[in-house]
Amino acid sequence: MSILVCRVKSPLSQVTEERVKDYLSCVQDELKEELRLVEMDELDKVPFGLVYVASGGSEGIFLEKYLKLAERPLYILTSGESNSLAASMEILSYLQAHGHYGEIIHGSVKDVAARIRALKSAYQAKANLKGKKLGLIGDPSDWLIASPADDAAYRAKLGVSLEKIPMSELQDEIKKGGYPENRWTLDLKGKGYDAAEMEKALNVYGAFRRIVDRHGLFGLTVRCFDLLDSVHTTGCLGLAILNAEGIYGGCEGDVPSLMSMVILGEVSGNPVFLCNPSRINTEKGEMVLAHCTLPMNMPESYRLTTHYESGIGVAVAGHVPEVPCTIFKTNAALDRYFAKDGEIVGNLQEPTLCRTQIRLKLDDFSYFLTRPIYNHHLVTLGQHEKALAEFFHLIG
Length: 396
Fold this sequence. Notes:
Elements: E1 3-8, H1 17-31, E2 35-38, E3 49-53, H2 59-66, E4 74-77, H3 84-97, E5 102-105, H4 109-129, E6 133-137, H5 151-158, E7 161-165, H6 167-176, H7 183-189, H8 195-215, E8 219-222, H9 227-230, H10 236-244, E9 248-250, H11 255-268, E10 273-281, E11 286-291, E12 301-305, E13 315-319, E14 324-330, E15 337-348, E16 356-361, H12 366-370, E17 377-381, H13 385-395
Parallel strand pairs: 1-2, 1-3, 3-4, 4-5, 6-7, 6-8, 8-9
Antiparallel strand pairs: 10-11, 10-17, 11-16, 12-13, 14-15, 14-17, 15-16
Helix pairs in contact: 1-4, 4-11, 4-13, 6-8, 8-10
């Protein structure tokens, strides 16, 4: 989708339209997204847009156009020539004096593109979440003693609602059996894993999928350990497929982790691994994270095994790309979060950990040892720390 830009410049300026387009083209090439010139009132129709102040002497022209806009944050793009920065500072001072939020985006083309990317990601994520519904199947697992849900915060800050669904509804759907045949189910059945166990696990996926469709869910979390006794399998595989389909699926009835998964997924545009911090090596600056489910579209390759704690069911042991990444978590009230850019530097296959195991390089681990936000954390590929910071600035 294009990013809309309104250009403002003085009629006395020597900055030609060709020069304007050349600068925007440089930014666009670095950004890898189209910057489309529009009139100021077009900015009201999108969550995020830019005002490009192309020259000095354009302050009055800006003011005339800006007063027609609804009240909104203003992001001012500058080129670093023709008194563009000076005029932008005058404009920003006016906005602040009148109680409006604004920001000048200035610097190298690379820095400008990075800032625009972060802002767009945050605004788009906020817009995407409005009106969405998440499901909680059963209650949170008993051991999640510090991980409450906060329905009021989700509604007020994100426009997201939480629907509670009884465990009996899931169990009834599992008994019905059946699941969609798609690229994921076909690939899984082609792995040659125990056919009876695979069928049980895929029936859980089918039950999840019908519940998602019936309730109009954007994502769900389930008290999955209850399935061990009732249907003698786990939800690991079903959640892995849901996540690959773009439906956020979380474990253990952990609502704050599901909400964190949703936020990270929408900000990054990438699949998200919900996992346990398992071990920290402060000397090497590394930590190990692991879990028994993983989005099917996240690893480079995978093998199938059992769920770790129970030794039954079907779990995914994936080999995740060793690339830059982001680790993230927010609390139930959405008023505190942790986000850190890092790098995945290894994949493990240890018998005493959950099945997908990654080694993460970070420059500081004090948060995890002194003031963590609950247990589970979320990892995605790519570095999105700045976009997450902007997202939380937006939701207040």
